[in-house]
Protein backbone atom coordinates (compact mmCIF):
# COMPACT_ATOMS: atom_id res chain seq x y z
CA UNK A 1 0.00 0.00 0.00
CA UNK A 2 1.48 3.37 -1.06
CA UNK A 3 1.84 6.45 1.09
CA UNK A 4 -1.28 8.10 -0.36
CA UNK A 5 -3.44 5.03 0.32
CA UNK A 6 -2.01 4.61 3.83
CA UNK A 7 -2.51 8.27 4.71
CA UNK A 8 -6.00 8.22 3.19
CA UNK A 9 -7.05 5.20 5.27
CA UNK A 10 -5.65 6.74 8.45
CA UNK A 11 -7.38 10.04 7.69
CA UNK A 12 -10.72 8.30 7.20
CA UNK A 13 -10.47 6.49 10.54
CA UNK A 14 -9.31 9.64 12.33
CA UNK A 15 -12.07 11.77 10.80
CA UNK A 16 -14.81 9.37 11.91
CA UNK A 17 -13.41 9.20 15.45
CA UNK A 18 -12.98 12.97 15.45
CA UNK A 19 -16.56 13.61 14.32
CA UNK A 20 -17.96 11.38 17.06
CA UNK A 21 -15.63 12.84 19.68
CA UNK A 22 -16.43 16.38 18.56
CA UNK A 23 -20.17 15.80 18.90
CA UNK A 24 -19.87 14.24 22.36
CA UNK A 25 -17.46 16.87 23.69
CA UNK A 26 -19.06 20.04 22.32
CA UNK A 27 -22.70 19.03 22.60
CA UNK A 28 -22.67 16.99 25.81
CA UNK A 29 -19.48 17.43 27.86
CA UNK A 30 -18.62 21.14 27.67
CA UNK A 31 -22.17 22.34 28.50
CA UNK A 32 -21.93 20.45 31.78
CA UNK A 33 -18.90 22.46 32.89
CA UNK A 34 -19.36 25.85 31.25
CA UNK A 35 -22.19 28.32 31.65
CA UNK A 36 -23.75 29.62 28.39
CA UNK A 37 -21.96 32.94 28.86
CA UNK A 38 -18.59 31.22 29.31
CA UNK A 39 -19.09 28.94 26.34
CA UNK A 40 -20.10 31.99 24.34
CA UNK A 41 -16.81 33.72 25.19
CA UNK A 42 -14.66 30.80 23.96
CA UNK A 43 -16.83 30.31 20.86
CA UNK A 44 -16.54 34.01 20.00
CA UNK A 45 -12.78 33.90 20.53
CA UNK A 46 -12.43 30.85 18.26
CA UNK A 47 -14.65 32.34 15.55
CA UNK A 48 -12.78 35.66 15.50
CA UNK A 49 -9.41 33.88 15.43
CA UNK A 50 -10.44 31.65 12.51
CA UNK A 51 -11.63 34.55 10.34
CA UNK A 52 -8.63 36.67 11.38
CA UNK A 53 -6.18 33.88 10.48
CA UNK A 54 -7.77 33.21 7.10
CA UNK A 55 -7.61 36.85 6.05
CA UNK A 56 -3.99 37.10 7.19
CA UNK A 57 -2.92 33.91 5.38
CA UNK A 58 -4.26 35.35 2.08
CA UNK A 59 -5.19 31.92 0.75
CA UNK A 60 -1.62 30.63 0.93
CA UNK A 61 -2.67 27.33 2.48
CA UNK A 62 -4.30 26.45 -0.84
CA UNK A 63 -1.37 27.99 -2.72
CA UNK A 64 0.94 25.57 -0.92
CA UNK A 65 -0.98 22.56 -2.17
CA UNK A 66 -1.54 23.93 -5.66
CA UNK A 67 2.04 25.06 -6.46
CA UNK A 68 4.28 22.78 -4.40
CA UNK A 69 4.76 20.23 -7.24
CA UNK A 70 6.67 22.94 -9.17
CA UNK A 71 9.05 23.46 -6.24
CA UNK A 72 9.45 19.84 -5.12
CA UNK A 73 13.19 19.16 -4.92
CA UNK A 74 14.32 17.47 -1.68
CA UNK A 75 18.02 18.00 -2.37
CA UNK A 76 17.67 21.80 -2.32
CA UNK A 77 15.08 21.99 0.45
CA UNK A 78 12.32 22.38 -2.15
CA UNK A 79 14.00 25.53 -3.47
CA UNK A 80 13.09 27.61 -0.40
CA UNK A 81 9.35 27.04 -0.74
CA UNK A 82 8.57 26.80 3.00
CA UNK A 83 9.96 30.28 3.88
CA UNK A 84 7.82 31.72 1.05
CA UNK A 85 4.77 29.75 2.16
CA UNK A 86 5.10 31.06 5.71
CA UNK A 87 6.55 34.48 4.88
CA UNK A 88 3.61 35.91 2.93
CA UNK A 89 1.07 34.98 5.65
CA UNK A 90 3.38 36.51 8.28
CA UNK A 91 3.35 39.79 6.37
CA UNK A 92 -0.43 39.54 6.05
CA UNK A 93 -0.70 38.82 9.77
CA UNK A 94 1.30 41.96 10.60
CA UNK A 95 -1.11 44.09 8.54
CA UNK A 96 -4.28 42.47 9.88
CA UNK A 97 -2.99 42.62 13.46
CA UNK A 98 -2.40 46.35 13.17
CA UNK A 99 -5.99 46.78 11.95
CA UNK A 100 -7.25 44.42 14.67
CA UNK A 101 -5.80 46.47 17.51
CA UNK A 102 -6.58 49.82 15.91
CA UNK A 103 -10.17 48.63 15.50
CA UNK A 104 -10.61 47.53 19.13
CA UNK A 105 -12.54 50.71 20.10
CA UNK A 106 -14.93 50.02 17.22
CA UNK A 107 -15.24 46.22 17.48
CA UNK A 108 -15.83 45.68 21.19
CA UNK A 109 -18.78 48.13 21.44
CA UNK A 110 -20.70 45.85 19.05
CA UNK A 111 -21.15 43.55 22.05
CA UNK A 112 -22.76 46.29 24.15
CA UNK A 113 -23.09 45.33 27.81
CA UNK A 114 -21.16 42.08 27.20
CA UNK A 115 -18.07 43.93 25.94
CA UNK A 116 -16.40 43.77 29.39
CA UNK A 117 -16.61 39.96 29.22
CA UNK A 118 -14.58 39.86 26.01
CA UNK A 119 -12.20 42.79 26.61
CA UNK A 120 -9.74 40.83 28.84
CA UNK A 121 -9.25 38.27 26.07
CA UNK A 122 -8.99 40.63 23.10
CA UNK A 123 -5.18 40.31 22.90
CA UNK A 124 -5.41 36.55 23.25
CA UNK A 125 -7.59 36.54 20.14
CA UNK A 126 -4.55 37.74 18.18
CA UNK A 127 -2.37 35.04 19.75
CA UNK A 128 -4.90 32.35 18.87
CA UNK A 129 -5.21 33.73 15.32
CA UNK A 130 -1.43 33.62 14.86
CA UNK A 131 -1.12 29.97 15.81
CA UNK A 132 -4.27 29.07 13.87
CA UNK A 133 -2.69 30.60 10.78
CA UNK A 134 0.64 28.86 11.42
CA UNK A 135 -1.16 25.54 11.82
CA UNK A 136 -3.13 25.91 8.58
CA UNK A 137 -0.04 26.77 6.53
CA UNK A 138 1.96 23.86 7.94
CA UNK A 139 -1.00 21.54 7.45
CA UNK A 140 -1.08 22.53 3.76
CA UNK A 141 2.67 21.92 3.50
CA UNK A 142 2.25 18.42 4.96
CA UNK A 143 -0.63 17.69 2.57
CA UNK A 144 1.63 18.64 -0.33
CA UNK A 145 4.23 16.21 1.07
CA UNK A 146 1.56 13.46 1.40
CA UNK A 147 1.91 13.46 5.21
CA UNK A 148 -1.61 14.21 6.38
CA UNK A 149 -2.50 11.67 9.07
CA UNK A 150 -0.57 13.31 11.91
CA UNK A 151 -2.06 16.76 11.42
CA UNK A 152 -5.54 15.21 11.18
CA UNK A 153 -4.92 13.36 14.44
CA UNK A 154 -3.82 16.44 16.39
CA UNK A 155 -6.66 18.58 14.99
CA UNK A 156 -9.55 16.11 15.11
CA UNK A 157 -8.67 14.06 18.18
CA UNK A 158 -5.88 15.47 20.35
CA UNK A 159 -7.22 19.04 20.37
CA UNK A 160 -10.71 17.91 21.37
CA UNK A 161 -9.38 15.67 24.13
CA UNK A 162 -7.25 18.50 25.53
CA UNK A 163 -10.13 21.00 25.45
CA UNK A 164 -12.35 18.52 27.32
CA UNK A 165 -9.50 17.96 29.80
CA UNK A 166 -9.36 21.71 30.40
CA UNK A 167 -13.12 21.78 30.98
CA UNK A 168 -12.75 18.99 33.57
CA UNK A 169 -9.99 20.94 35.32
CA UNK A 170 -12.21 24.02 35.35
CA UNK A 171 -15.18 22.04 36.62
CA UNK A 172 -13.11 20.51 39.43
CA UNK A 173 -11.87 23.93 40.48
CA UNK A 174 -8.25 23.58 39.39
CA UNK A 175 -8.66 26.36 36.82
CA UNK A 176 -10.46 29.67 37.00
CA UNK A 177 -12.43 30.67 33.93
CA UNK A 178 -9.56 32.93 32.85
CA UNK A 179 -7.27 29.94 33.33
CA UNK A 180 -9.55 27.84 31.13
CA UNK A 181 -9.52 30.47 28.36
CA UNK A 182 -5.72 30.54 28.51
CA UNK A 183 -5.74 26.72 28.44
CA UNK A 184 -7.99 26.88 25.36
CA UNK A 185 -5.62 29.29 23.62
CA UNK A 186 -2.57 27.38 24.83
CA UNK A 187 -3.57 23.95 23.53
CA UNK A 188 -4.50 25.42 20.13
CA UNK A 189 -1.11 27.15 20.02
CA UNK A 190 0.74 24.05 21.18
CA UNK A 191 -0.68 22.03 18.29
CA UNK A 192 0.87 24.43 15.78
CA UNK A 193 4.24 24.03 17.49
CA UNK A 194 3.73 20.27 17.62
CA UNK A 195 3.20 20.30 13.87
CA UNK A 196 6.46 22.25 13.46
CA UNK A 197 8.21 19.54 15.46
CA UNK A 198 6.70 16.87 13.23
CA UNK A 199 7.84 18.67 10.07
CA UNK A 200 11.35 18.76 11.56
CA UNK A 201 11.16 15.08 12.56
CA UNK A 202 10.42 13.97 8.98
CA UNK A 203 13.32 16.10 7.72
CA UNK A 204 11.24 18.70 5.87
CA UNK A 205 11.81 21.82 8.02
CA UNK A 206 13.73 23.86 5.43
CA UNK A 207 13.69 27.41 6.83
CA UNK A 208 16.57 28.83 4.79
CA UNK A 209 15.29 31.28 2.11
CA UNK A 210 16.71 31.06 -1.42
CA UNK A 211 16.62 33.44 -4.35
CA UNK A 212 15.64 30.70 -6.78
CA UNK A 213 12.21 30.41 -5.16
CA UNK A 214 11.04 33.49 -7.10
CA UNK A 215 12.26 32.01 -10.39
CA UNK A 216 10.20 28.82 -10.25
CA UNK A 217 6.74 30.39 -10.50
CA UNK A 218 5.85 34.10 -10.73
CA UNK A 219 4.92 35.52 -7.34
CA UNK A 220 2.09 37.45 -8.99
CA UNK A 221 0.54 34.17 -10.15
CA UNK A 222 0.68 32.71 -6.63
CA UNK A 223 -0.76 35.86 -5.08
CA UNK A 224 -3.58 35.83 -7.65
CA UNK A 225 -4.34 32.21 -6.82
CA UNK A 226 -4.23 33.09 -3.12
CA UNK A 227 -6.72 35.93 -3.55
CA UNK A 228 -9.08 33.67 -5.50
CA UNK A 229 -8.98 30.88 -2.89
CA UNK A 230 -9.22 33.40 -0.05
CA UNK A 231 -12.67 34.42 -1.24
CA UNK A 232 -13.82 30.83 -1.28
CA UNK A 233 -12.34 29.79 2.08
CA UNK A 234 -13.38 33.03 3.77
CA UNK A 235 -16.93 32.61 2.48
CA UNK A 236 -16.99 29.10 3.93
CA UNK A 237 -15.80 30.35 7.31
CA UNK A 238 -18.30 33.20 7.32
CA UNK A 239 -21.09 30.69 6.73
CA UNK A 240 -19.86 28.59 9.66
CA UNK A 241 -19.05 31.31 12.19
CA UNK A 242 -20.89 34.54 11.42
CA UNK A 243 -24.12 33.45 13.11
CA UNK A 244 -22.30 32.87 16.42
CA UNK A 245 -20.61 36.28 16.19
CA UNK A 246 -23.79 38.12 15.26
CA UNK A 247 -25.90 36.39 17.93
CA UNK A 248 -23.28 37.35 20.50
CA UNK A 249 -23.21 40.94 19.29
CA UNK A 250 -26.94 41.50 18.76
CA UNK A 251 -28.41 39.34 21.53
CA UNK A 252 -25.85 38.34 24.17
CA UNK A 253 -22.71 36.28 24.62
CA UNK A 254 -24.79 33.80 26.65
CA UNK A 255 -27.18 33.40 23.71
CA UNK A 256 -24.15 32.71 21.50
CA UNK A 257 -23.15 29.91 23.88
CA UNK A 258 -26.63 28.38 23.73
CA UNK A 259 -26.63 28.73 19.95
CA UNK A 260 -23.24 26.99 19.65
CA UNK A 261 -24.48 23.98 21.64
CA UNK A 262 -27.64 23.78 19.51
CA UNK A 263 -25.53 23.98 16.35
CA UNK A 264 -23.24 21.22 17.63
CA UNK A 265 -26.20 18.94 18.33
CA UNK A 266 -27.43 19.42 14.76
CA UNK A 267 -24.03 18.52 13.27
CA UNK A 268 -24.72 14.84 13.97
CA UNK A 269 -27.09 14.88 11.01
CA UNK A 270 -24.29 16.03 8.69
CA UNK A 271 -21.94 13.13 9.52
CA UNK A 272 -23.26 10.69 6.84
CA UNK A 273 -23.15 13.38 4.14
CA UNK A 274 -19.60 14.38 5.08
CA UNK A 275 -18.51 10.75 5.00
CA UNK A 276 -20.10 10.25 1.59
CA UNK A 277 -18.47 13.44 0.28
CA UNK A 278 -15.01 12.06 1.08
CA UNK A 279 -15.76 9.24 -1.35
CA UNK A 280 -17.72 11.31 -3.83
CA UNK A 281 -15.09 14.00 -4.46
CA UNK A 282 -12.43 11.83 -6.20
CA UNK A 283 -15.11 9.68 -7.83
CA UNK A 284 -16.86 12.66 -9.44
CA UNK A 285 -13.52 14.10 -10.53
CA UNK A 286 -12.77 10.80 -12.27
CA UNK A 287 -16.19 10.76 -13.98
CA UNK A 288 -15.58 14.28 -15.30
CA UNK A 289 -12.17 13.25 -16.58
CA UNK A 290 -13.69 10.29 -18.42
CA UNK A 291 -16.74 12.35 -19.47
CA UNK A 292 -18.87 9.47 -18.15
CA UNK A 293 -22.01 11.51 -17.55
CA UNK A 294 -24.44 8.53 -17.38
CA UNK A 295 -22.54 6.94 -14.47
CA UNK A 296 -22.22 10.34 -12.83
CA UNK A 297 -25.97 10.92 -13.07
CA UNK A 298 -26.62 7.48 -11.57
CA UNK A 299 -24.23 8.21 -8.70
CA UNK A 300 -25.89 11.61 -8.19
CA UNK A 301 -29.29 9.96 -7.75
CA UNK A 302 -28.02 7.12 -5.53
CA UNK A 303 -26.08 9.54 -3.29
CA UNK A 304 -29.17 11.72 -2.89
CA UNK A 305 -31.32 8.70 -2.04
CA UNK A 306 -28.82 7.49 0.57
CA UNK A 307 -28.45 10.96 2.12
CA UNK A 308 -32.25 11.29 2.28
CA UNK A 309 -32.64 7.88 3.90
CA UNK A 310 -30.01 8.44 6.59
CA UNK A 311 -30.77 12.13 7.02
CA UNK A 312 -34.48 11.59 7.69
CA UNK A 313 -33.73 8.88 10.25
CA UNK A 314 -31.21 11.05 12.11
CA UNK A 315 -33.49 14.10 11.90
CA UNK A 316 -36.31 12.18 13.56
CA UNK A 317 -34.02 10.43 16.06
CA UNK A 318 -32.57 13.72 17.29
CA UNK A 319 -35.85 15.68 17.15
CA UNK A 320 -37.86 13.12 19.09
CA UNK A 321 -35.20 12.87 21.79
CA UNK A 322 -34.18 16.50 22.24
CA UNK A 323 -35.67 16.52 25.74
CA UNK A 324 -33.40 13.62 26.69
CA UNK A 325 -30.32 15.23 25.12
CA UNK A 326 -30.88 18.48 27.00
CA UNK A 327 -31.61 16.59 30.22
CA UNK A 328 -27.98 15.41 30.13
CA UNK A 329 -26.90 19.05 30.60
CA UNK A 330 -26.93 20.38 34.14
CA UNK A 331 -27.83 23.93 33.07
CA UNK A 332 -31.44 24.10 31.91
CA UNK A 333 -30.75 27.32 29.96
CA UNK A 334 -29.23 25.34 27.10
CA UNK A 335 -32.70 23.91 26.36
CA UNK A 336 -33.64 27.40 25.11
CA UNK A 337 -31.92 26.30 21.90
CA UNK A 338 -34.54 23.61 21.11
CA UNK A 339 -36.14 25.53 18.23
CA UNK A 340 -32.69 26.41 16.93
CA UNK A 341 -31.76 22.72 16.79
CA UNK A 342 -34.93 21.85 14.87
CA UNK A 343 -34.35 24.61 12.30
CA UNK A 344 -30.68 23.73 11.82
CA UNK A 345 -31.58 20.05 11.48
CA UNK A 346 -34.04 21.01 8.74
CA UNK A 347 -31.32 23.03 7.02
CA UNK A 348 -28.86 20.12 7.08
CA UNK A 349 -31.54 17.64 6.00
CA UNK A 350 -32.33 19.71 2.92
CA UNK A 351 -28.61 19.99 2.21
CA UNK A 352 -28.41 16.19 2.22
CA UNK A 353 -31.57 15.69 0.18
CA UNK A 354 -30.28 17.91 -2.61
CA UNK A 355 -27.41 15.52 -2.94
CA UNK A 356 -23.84 16.27 -3.86
CA UNK A 357 -24.69 19.29 -6.01
CA UNK A 358 -21.83 21.36 -4.54
CA UNK A 359 -19.27 18.69 -5.41
CA UNK A 360 -20.84 18.32 -8.86
CA UNK A 361 -20.12 22.01 -9.48
CA UNK A 362 -16.63 22.18 -7.96
CA UNK A 363 -15.37 19.13 -9.88
CA UNK A 364 -16.96 20.19 -13.19
CA UNK A 365 -15.38 22.26 -15.98
CA UNK A 366 -17.43 25.21 -14.66
CA UNK A 367 -15.89 24.97 -11.20
CA UNK A 368 -15.39 28.74 -10.91
CA UNK A 369 -19.13 29.12 -10.41
CA UNK A 370 -18.69 27.40 -7.04
CA UNK A 371 -16.99 30.57 -5.80
CA UNK A 372 -20.02 32.60 -6.89
CA UNK A 373 -22.31 30.25 -4.98
CA UNK A 374 -20.15 30.37 -1.83
CA UNK A 375 -19.81 34.14 -1.85
CA UNK A 376 -23.55 34.51 -2.51
CA UNK A 377 -24.32 32.17 0.39
CA UNK A 378 -22.03 34.13 2.72
CA UNK A 379 -23.57 37.48 1.73
CA UNK A 380 -27.12 36.10 1.99
CA UNK A 381 -26.35 34.64 5.44
CA UNK A 382 -25.02 37.98 6.72
CA UNK A 383 -27.97 39.94 5.33
CA UNK A 384 -30.56 37.54 6.72
CA UNK A 385 -28.84 37.46 10.11
CA UNK A 386 -28.81 41.25 10.22
CA UNK A 387 -32.51 41.31 9.36
CA UNK A 388 -33.79 38.47 11.56
CA UNK A 389 -31.62 38.37 14.70
CA UNK A 390 -32.87 41.76 16.01
CA UNK A 391 -36.45 40.51 15.59
CA UNK A 392 -36.21 36.85 16.59
CA UNK A 393 -33.00 36.59 18.59
CA UNK A 394 -30.93 33.45 18.15
CA UNK A 395 -33.90 31.77 16.46
CA UNK A 396 -33.52 34.41 13.75
CA UNK A 397 -29.96 33.19 13.10
CA UNK A 398 -31.27 29.64 12.68
CA UNK A 399 -34.03 30.82 10.33
CA UNK A 400 -31.40 32.74 8.35
CA UNK A 401 -29.18 29.65 8.08
CA UNK A 402 -32.14 27.55 6.97
CA UNK A 403 -33.36 30.02 4.33
CA UNK A 404 -29.84 30.61 3.00
CA UNK A 405 -29.02 26.90 2.74
CA UNK A 406 -32.30 26.06 1.03
CA UNK A 407 -31.92 28.96 -1.42
CA UNK A 408 -28.35 28.16 -2.40
CA UNK A 409 -29.01 24.42 -2.75
CA UNK A 410 -32.00 25.09 -5.00
CA UNK A 411 -29.72 27.34 -7.10
CA UNK A 412 -26.96 24.73 -7.28
CA UNK A 413 -29.40 21.96 -8.19
CA UNK A 414 -30.86 24.13 -10.94
CA UNK A 415 -27.36 25.01 -12.18
CA UNK A 416 -26.34 21.34 -12.51
CA UNK A 417 -29.60 20.52 -14.31
CA UNK A 418 -29.36 23.56 -16.60
CA UNK A 419 -25.68 22.98 -17.43
CA UNK A 420 -25.54 19.19 -17.69
CA UNK A 421 -29.16 17.98 -17.64
CA UNK A 422 -28.64 15.99 -14.43
CA UNK A 423 -30.95 16.13 -11.43
CA UNK A 424 -30.92 13.91 -8.31
CA UNK A 425 -34.60 13.16 -7.73
CA UNK A 426 -36.61 10.01 -8.47
CA UNK A 427 -40.01 8.79 -7.25
CA UNK A 428 -38.25 7.13 -4.31
CA UNK A 429 -37.40 10.45 -2.63
CA UNK A 430 -41.01 11.51 -1.82
CA UNK A 431 -41.69 7.89 -0.81
CA UNK A 432 -38.84 7.97 1.73
CA UNK A 433 -40.08 11.33 3.02
CA UNK A 434 -43.57 9.86 3.45
CA UNK A 435 -42.18 6.84 5.30
CA UNK A 436 -40.18 9.17 7.55
CA UNK A 437 -43.34 11.16 8.35
CA UNK A 438 -45.26 8.00 9.31
CA UNK A 439 -42.40 6.63 11.42
CA UNK A 440 -41.93 10.02 13.07
CA UNK A 441 -45.59 10.27 14.03
CA UNK A 442 -45.44 6.72 15.44
CA UNK A 443 -42.46 7.66 17.63
CA UNK A 444 -44.04 10.96 18.69
CA UNK A 445 -47.27 9.25 19.80
CA UNK A 446 -45.41 7.15 22.35
CA UNK A 447 -46.25 8.18 25.93
CA UNK A 448 -43.77 10.08 28.08
CA UNK A 449 -42.51 7.75 30.80
CA UNK A 450 -41.26 8.62 34.28
CA UNK A 451 -37.66 8.25 33.12
CA UNK A 452 -36.37 10.38 30.23
CA UNK A 453 -33.96 7.53 29.38
CA UNK A 454 -36.81 5.03 29.07
CA UNK A 455 -38.80 7.52 27.00
CA UNK A 456 -35.83 7.95 24.66
CA UNK A 457 -35.40 4.16 24.32
CA UNK A 458 -39.11 3.64 23.64
CA UNK A 459 -39.34 6.38 21.00
CA UNK A 460 -36.10 5.31 19.34
CA UNK A 461 -37.18 1.66 19.20
CA UNK A 462 -40.59 2.47 17.70
CA UNK A 463 -39.01 4.89 15.21
CA UNK A 464 -36.34 2.39 14.13
CA UNK A 465 -38.72 -0.56 13.76
CA UNK A 466 -41.35 1.47 11.87
CA UNK A 467 -38.79 3.12 9.59
CA UNK A 468 -36.90 -0.09 8.77
CA UNK A 469 -40.09 -2.10 8.25
CA UNK A 470 -41.59 0.42 5.84
CA UNK A 471 -38.31 0.79 3.92
CA UNK A 472 -38.17 -3.00 3.50
CA UNK A 473 -41.84 -3.31 2.59
CA UNK A 474 -41.80 -0.58 -0.05
CA UNK A 475 -38.27 -1.27 -1.37
CA UNK A 476 -37.81 2.47 -1.52
CA UNK A 477 -34.04 2.17 -1.15
CA UNK A 478 -32.48 -0.88 -2.85
CA UNK A 479 -29.17 -0.38 -1.01
CA UNK A 480 -30.84 -0.22 2.40
CA UNK A 481 -33.16 -3.12 1.56
CA UNK A 482 -30.19 -5.33 0.69
CA UNK A 483 -28.36 -4.36 3.88
CA UNK A 484 -31.40 -4.88 6.14
CA UNK A 485 -32.22 -8.22 4.55
CA UNK A 486 -28.66 -9.44 5.13
CA UNK A 487 -28.84 -8.22 8.73
CA UNK A 488 -32.19 -9.93 9.27
CA UNK A 489 -30.87 -13.18 7.74
CA UNK A 490 -27.85 -13.11 10.02
CA UNK A 491 -30.00 -12.72 13.15
CA UNK A 492 -32.39 -15.43 11.87
CA UNK A 493 -29.48 -17.89 11.61
CA UNK A 494 -28.59 -17.22 15.23
From TrEMBL:
Subcellular location(s) per record: Cell membrane
Membrane topology, from the record: Multi-pass membrane protein
Protein origin, superkingdom: Bacteria
Residues annotated as transmembrane: 12-34, 46-68, 80-101, 121-137, 157-175, 181-201, 222-242, 248-271, 306-326, 338-359, 371-389, 395-417, 429-447
Key words of the record: Cell membrane, Membrane, Transmembrane, Transmembrane helix
Xref: InterPro entries: Poly_Biosynth_Transport
Pfam family of the protein (one): Polysacc_synt_3
Protein name as annotated: Oligosaccharide flippase family protein
Native source organism of the sequence: Hymenobacter sublimis
Amino acid sequence: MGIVQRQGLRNTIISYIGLALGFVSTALVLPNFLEPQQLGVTATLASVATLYAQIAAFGFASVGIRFFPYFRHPESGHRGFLPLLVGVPLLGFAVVTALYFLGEPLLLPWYGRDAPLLAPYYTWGAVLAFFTMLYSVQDAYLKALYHTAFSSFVQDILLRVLIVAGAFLFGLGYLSFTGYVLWFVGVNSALALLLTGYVAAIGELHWRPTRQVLAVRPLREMLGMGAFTLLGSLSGSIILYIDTLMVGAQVSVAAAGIYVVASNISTALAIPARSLNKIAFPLLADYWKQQDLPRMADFYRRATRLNTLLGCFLFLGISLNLDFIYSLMRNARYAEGTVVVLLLLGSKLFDGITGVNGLMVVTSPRYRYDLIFNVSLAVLTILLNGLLIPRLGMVGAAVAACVAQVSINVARTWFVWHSYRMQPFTWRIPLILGIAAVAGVAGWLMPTLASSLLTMLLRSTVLTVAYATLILATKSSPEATLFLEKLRARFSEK
